[in-house]
Amino acid sequence: MQPKQYHVTDTELLVLQVLWERGRATTREVCDEIYPEGSTSQYYTVQKLLERLESRNCVARNRSQRVHVFSATVDRETLIQERLRGLSDSLCGGSVIPMLTGLIQMRRWTTAEQKELKELLDEVSEKKPKKK
C-alpha cells in the first residue's frame, strides 16, 4: 500500500511548524508567530492556509469554542520522509544512496552525530529480514 502523501507548500509548512512547536493554536496565535507585525490581510492568509491544510487532513480544527483551535494531524517525521522520497525520486531516480552521500558530505559531523548515525544504521540493518 502506498503511504499517504501530503503535498505541503513552503508557506503551509510554516503554519505546520508553529503547530508542531505549540501543539495547538488559534489562527491569531499562528499569525502572530509567523507575522509578528501582522496585518489583517496576513491574518486572513493564515486562516486560508489553515483551511487548505484542514481540507487535506494535515490539521484538525476543534470547533467546540467560539475561537477555533487547530492542531497538526501529520507529524514532522512523516512529512520529512515524504519530501525526501520525492527528492529521491526526482533527483536520483528513486535511489537514496546519492542523496544520502550528499547529505553526509555537506558538512562535518560531530562525534555524537556520528554515533547516532551508526546506531540508526545498526537499527535499520537489524530490521531487515535475513537472506537465506
From TrEMBL:
Annotated GO biological process: negative regulation of DNA-templated transcription
Keywords tagged on the record: DNA-binding, Transcription, Transcription regulation
Lyase listed as a keyword: no
Protein name per the record: Penicillinase repressor
Organism encoding this protein: Gimesia alba
Highest taxon listed in the record's lineage: Bacteria
Keyword tRNA-binding: no
Pfam families referenced in this protein's UniProt entry, alphabetically: Penicillinase_R
InterPro entries according to UniProt: BlaI_family, WH-like_DNA-bd_sf, WH_DNA-bd_sf
Gene3D superfamilies with a match to the protein in the record: Winged helix-like DNA-binding domain superfamily/Winged helix DNA-binding domain (1.10.10.10)
Membrane-crossing residue ranges in chain numbering: none
GO MF annotations, alphabetized: DNA binding
Residues annotated as signal peptide: none
Similarity-based family: Belongs to the BlaI transcriptional regulatory family.
